[in-house]
């Protein structure tokens, strides 16, 4: 019986997935403890309860993106007739912005703690690890250990940013773990890595007025639809972001004035150098499983320390995993939360529903946002064959772009469909303002197996950018120019 253990569930990691599972489990009557502990970054940055999303991920990222968009909006407002004294002279106060962002985070940390208390989840601020398959020890800041026993264990320790193995990287480089609480403005910044985190950071830094350069090793936004990616990059270049393609950093040293000298290998294999104020690595993340002493529990890991689970169950039946720690699953907060809740219901409510990881929508918060759900065109071709898919696409002109004469040449969308019959929609892609808001509802429609015919029979909301999805009719195959003719 479960009485031989102190807890029905012990959760390792108080982030998106772990907290969602813990709260759901106590609501269902389980006795639950959560271990959460943040190891400081190499630069010494640390933060509170709640995990990556709240402290060093989605939330501060979105807020800084918003700060950048507001800077743009000031100029637009002037075009709409707002009397703004010297709009050309406006600039961001980095410290003030960062303070606002950090204050919000602190308030979320606090609310999270209170919520755990009211829901009777035992929170233990300690670095947890396995003593044996049912015994977890937590090393607290004061060096003491707290030991608990658990019937079930959930591993939800998430991940942390990688550093490249080059001289000066750990000493002088920062990552997203440090950026959102940086005490002084980053200045001229080199962002190494062209995944979504690298692009987003370069995008908002440029929008805030700092010179930003992205160093791309191979391709930009691997895994995303490459037509859309090209548009996203074009727009970033338009707005002033620099890209160094097919290049790799070689070393970082510090100049006497505090600036950083970066040597890198360019696409021709030549050594180049440039000086930056900040070097930000966004080259992927590793799962935080090393500290867990998984060998004491017999839990196996695969590449990058990740756990290859089947319905969130590891190779040890009473040990589960959710979130970024999972192998080959989207590293997204709502994915971790959803999987965590469903798992708790299966464990403590005899539920049977399992997590569906397909067709999860996401948005890259670049200056012009890119939202998508379902297959990229490349994936559709791979799965269905080029002859069996139809791709509809169009450029469009947001109404609100006209008066400030904002460049609309990169407002573009695409619908990837089956070619036969009513043309089931396989993927939807949107570059433009509010891309996340635009895509979310269509993700629900795709869950309901929407066809292109049904999309076309949907009446739009005018004037919006989302309605453009109900108007698209030009197939790529037709070769007709997808630019609006008016
Ligand atoms: P986490 O939230 O990382 O939580 C794990 C927790 O466990 C951490 O607090 C960690 O310190 C703690 N821990 C680790 N080891 C131990 C241990 N041994 N003992 C105790 N505690 C431990 N997702 C989105 O959906 N939208 C976005 O816009 C978005 N933007 C992002 C931007 C950035 C810059 C980053 C880095 C990520 C972003 N993500 C975004 C991803 C999102 O943050 C993660 O997918 C999500 O936080 C994963 O949740 P998790 O529960 O797996 O782990
Ligand atoms: P991603 O999405 O894994 O992207 C990492 C990027 O960094 C990608 O462009 C890589 O290029 C590049 N990379 C990887 N290693 C290096 C080295 N050593 N030097 C230079 N460039 C490198 O990571 P993010 O940090 O953006 O996001 C992490 C995850 O969080 C991501 O999976 C999201 O789902 C959530 P490559 O294409 O490999 O050549």
Terminal CA distance: 72 Å
Number of strands: 22
Helix/strand/pairing category? alpha/beta
Shape: globular
Q: Your description of this structure?
A:
The mean pLDDT is 97. The strands form 5 sheets. Strands 1, 2, 3, 4, 5, 6 and 17 form a 7-stranded mixed beta sheet that branches. This protein has a 5-stranded parallel beta sheet with strand order 8-15-9-10-11. Strands 18-19-22-21-20 form a 5-stranded antiparallel beta sheet, sandwiched between helices. It is globular and about 75 Å long. 43% of the residues are buried. The chain is built from 13 helices and 22 strands. Helix 3 (58-79) crosses helix 4 (94-118). It has helices at residues 16-27, 52-56, 58-79, 94-118, 169-172, 176-179, 196-207, 226-238, 333-348, 377-384, 435-447, 452-456, 468-471; strands spanning 7-12, 32-35, 121-124, 126-132, 135-140, 145-155, 159-161, 174-175, 189-192, 212-215, 242-244, 248-254, 260-265, 271-276, 278-281, 285-287, 319-321, 362-364, 369-374, 389-395, 412-418, 425-432. The chain is of the alpha/beta class and 486 residues long. The chain is 29% helix and 23% strand. Strand 1 (7-12), helix 1 and strand 2 (32-35) form a beta-alpha-beta unit.
Give a brief description.
With 486 residues, the protein is an alpha/beta fold. It has 13 helices and 22 strands. Helix 1 packs parallel to helix 9 and helix 3 packs across helix 4.
